[in-house]
Amino acid sequence: MATPPSAASQSGHPGHAGHAASAARVALVGVHGFGAHHLGNLERLRAAGVVELVAVADPQPPEPGSVPAAAAVFPGLTELLAGTPDLDVIIVATPIQTHAPLGLAALATTADLYLEKPPVASLADFNILSDAAQASGRSVQIGFQSLGSHALAALEELVASGTIGTLEGISATGRWVRDKAYYKRSRWAGKRSIEGIDVVDGVATNPLAHAVATALRIAGARTTADVASVETDLYRANDIESDDTSVIRVRTATGLPITCALTLCASESVEPYVTLHGSAGTAVFHYTEDRLTVTTPAGQTEQVFGRDDLTENLLAHRREGRELISPITDSGAFMLVLEAIRTAPLPALIDGAYIRWEGDGDAAHAVVIGIESALERATRESATFSELGVPWAVSAASALRASAGQGTGS
């Protein structure tokens, strides 16, 4: 749980009020993959004088020149913490299954934590990490970068004003292409677990997790108490354990339906989007572009918004008590979705008759025939593939797995 600004100012928390003028001492755990993005962002913030990257940790050494010469390099977080005192912020950008132990280790220090999405790989681990954050008084920012978009405030005002009428539902649509090389890039890619340790690397929990998280935030579903139920309809075209083509249907505590129709087996990648379905119009938010298109009987408008960087937001929270954009407690709703996927039966294998392969070798990628139409129907009708009678889907009676939104265990 993120420390409220009022409590933080009274807690003797290093780096809060009284340390505003000094650059924050930051350590980055994981310098490859999305960690490389953090390296670039930290260099931008270093040039602005607000951070000092004092150490990095990764079992695979960083690329030459990618890390400042003054930063110490360690093979792991244990070694980093032993050799680097007085950290202000620890950023963890590592494989999903390592988030829980590394997050707990970070919270045992005096540093605040930036933890990449998904927070952890099970609801039980989420509860443990949340309790540790609350007990330590540390602040935890979860890396759902799309939540920093200024379009979210505009959408809230749009709904409140009645511009699109009564909000009847929200949907998220993701159509991406991922080839065989994508699933060969690491031992955890596409896995549900490794040697008994949860991974849950599926379409809705990792590559298109932002679509789910953004839809939940727009719906006002932040904590576990904000979700009434989650249903999953999971499939795979690739030779993997996890799902690559799925519908996730959530009902919020207020009764609002959220339908997420996602695939990594499209014919071509398009920018994912979240749609607000109103009684008098629609609002479509392309969250990777911060672009909002509103359509009503009066016409169509489009606007591109700015975005707050989550690392800068965490630093501002430390300095001046600014509200965190993505505190750990606000990932509770997302974690109920992840938990429903984790505990669901194995994703059904799509019959090869409905799959077309494009490209050669490791560049080959699966295309589920007709997937674009199936995704459109699913979001328009708030229905699963099974309910729609898609030919490769299993029967609706056996496909859906529902879980209560108030669960606290695994």
From TrEMBL:
Domain of life of the organism encoding this protein: Bacteria
Keywords noted in UniProt: NAD, Oxidoreductase
SUPFAM superfamilies tied to this protein: Glyceraldehyde-3-phosphate dehydrogenase-like, C-terminal domain (SSF55347), NAD(P)-binding Rossmann-fold domains (SSF51735)
Domain Gfo/Idh/MocA-like oxidoreductase N-terminal: 25-144
Regions annotated as coiled coil: none
Gene Ontology MF: a single term: oxidoreductase activity
Domain annotation GFO/IDH/MocA-like oxidoreductase: ranges: 154-283
Protein name per its UniProtKB record: Oxidoreductase
